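Appendix C reproduces, verbatim, an entry submitted by the partner laboratory led by Prof. M.T., so that reviewers can inspect both the input and the predicted structure.
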Amino acid sequence: MSKPSPSMHRDLAWALKQQAKRTGERAPSVRGADWRTAVVTAVNGDGTVDADGIEDIRCLDRYALPSVGDVIRIDQSSSGNWLALGTLATVSGWTTLTLAAGYTNPGHGYTASWMREGRRIWMRGRIGPTSGTIADGDTLATIPTAIRPGVAVAWAVARDAGAMPAVCRLEITAAGALRTFQSTSLPTWVALDGISYTI
């Protein structure tokens, strides 16, 4: 029986080295922990998500409201388990809210505006009538479709000091109408400061 040539040994060694390299590149236990961004393709009933062809990725507590289309960070441990850390920040900056006819900034506080941070909407500013008081149930603005909460939501908000305590009810209807409710001592302005909701 003839002995293998030295070149055959070199070729076999090279082939084994390449195979080990390819295996290591794919195996988390060799490669170590890793992370990347991914787009959510499914939200499962057990609190997991699917993204980038990876199924049943567990979500951290801070990523409690996953949604299809979210761009998220996913981490893989050295044992191969996946974890969804949450969405990447989508901060829009403050956008002025278009007010209904007869309403404006009362001359103090921020201009009525909103900001999107991921799926959370923040509001700030003050709204008052161009003259007189805000009529009970009057619509102050229509919230843009893209940032409507989808259901009716309401808050107790600051108002002028014409009544004590100086608060009134402000709500956004399912159709996006931003309106007040105050049966007595109608306000001359209301504040949006501190209003926050998820979409």
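The longest helix spans residues 6-26. Additional entries are available on request from the coordinating office.
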